């Protein structure tokens, strides 16, 4: 039974390029009203003129930008996708770990998604709202044979735990959370050798999101729906 037939509202971070941009494109196709946020340059969003698209400049590290952005949204949010993320660059050895890089990667990949979620919580639809974290298999402790990539791996592991730890509190409010690994995707981060196109990854991600329910909140899956090892 359809209780309400309003157009669903999505909020996507890091939406000017890569997976975030493709999420915006496909969400618009699926009749969402989309609030797309970008750090500094609008990138692809500039060419994406659509009556249901609203773009906001927002650095996810900056609480003073998150609050006014959400005030401008002001309508209930059905779907929050924390997508913005950064890599840690070099395949550094233990000796080469650069702790300024580590702090920044932790701030963007692990802390910022939690802060955005905290600020968005009052707007998230009770009974049916969804929070999606774009995480990575690189954050898996069990799947870490090659090691390295210290900051990126640790940041996604921390994101997975933040999300798992908030699962029950959000479930009580009728909000489901999920952790999705997009696969290895050809973007600036994924590089030219990645086997997956953003369009295919995002089609899978949106299928997983549509299938997400409160009963299965907290799952850690890839874009094709495969359960991943923690
Ligand atoms: N590509 C892959 O193979 C792969 C695999 C596993 C997981 N992921 C995850 O998927 C997500 C998207 O990655 P992608 O491949 O699309 O990477 P990408 O092409 O490098 O795009 C990253 C996006 O994040 C934004 N961003 C970075 N720092 C930000 C900040 N402080 N505030 C706001 N936005 C910020 C970037 O904005 P600017 O343009 O302003 O820098 C850009 O829009 C990330 O969380 C990544 O860890 C990707």
Topology (elements, then pairings):
Elements lengths: L8 E4 L5 H12 L3 E6 L14 E5 L5 H11 L5 E4 L16 H22 L9 E5 L15 H23 L3 E6 L16 H14 L8 E3 L8
Parallel strand pairs: 1-2, 1-4, 2-3, 4-5, 5-6, 6-7
The structure holds NADP nicotinamide-adenine-dinucleotide phosphate.
Can you offer a commentary on this structure?
The structure is a single chain. This protein is α/β, with parallel strands linked by helices and 230 residues long. The chain has a single domain (9-222), classed as Rossmann fold, CATH 3.40.50.720. 36% of the residues lie in helices and 14% in strands. It contains five helices and seven strands, in the order E-H-E-E-H-E-H-E-H-E-H-E. It has helices spanning 18-29, 63-73, 99-120, 150-172, 198-211; strands spanning 9-12, 33-38, 53-57, 79-82, 130-134, 176-181, 220-222. Strands 3-2-1-4-5-6-7 form a seven-stranded parallel sheet, with helices on both faces. Strand 5 (130-134), helix 4 (150-172) and strand 6 form a beta-alpha-beta unit. Helix 2 runs parallel beside helix 3 (99-120) and helix 3 packs parallel to helix 4. The chain binds NADP nicotinamide-adenine-dinucleotide phosphate (NAP). The site of NADP nicotinamide-adenine-dinucleotide phosphate has 30 residues, from helix 1.
- Looking at the chains present, what oligomeric state does this protein adopt? single chain
Q: Whole-number average pLDDT?
A: 96
CATH architecture annotation: 3-Layer(aba) Sandwich
CATH topology: Rossmann fold
- Cross-sheet strand order for the largest sheet: 3-2-1-4-5-6-7
CA-atom Rg in angstroms: 17 Å
User: Strand fraction band?
Assistant: 5-15%
CATH superfamily: NAD(P)-binding Rossmann-like Domain
For the record, give the distance between the C-alpha atoms at the N and C termini, rounded to a whole number: 36 Å
Helix-strand category: alpha/beta
Total number of helices: 5
Q: Please give the share of residues in helix.
A: 25-40%
CATH class categorisation:
Alpha Beta
The small-molecule ligands in this entry are: NADP nicotinamide-adenine-dinucleotide phosphate
Q: What is the makeup of the main sheet?
A: 7 strands, parallel
Q: Overall 3D geometry?
A: globular
Count of the domains: 1
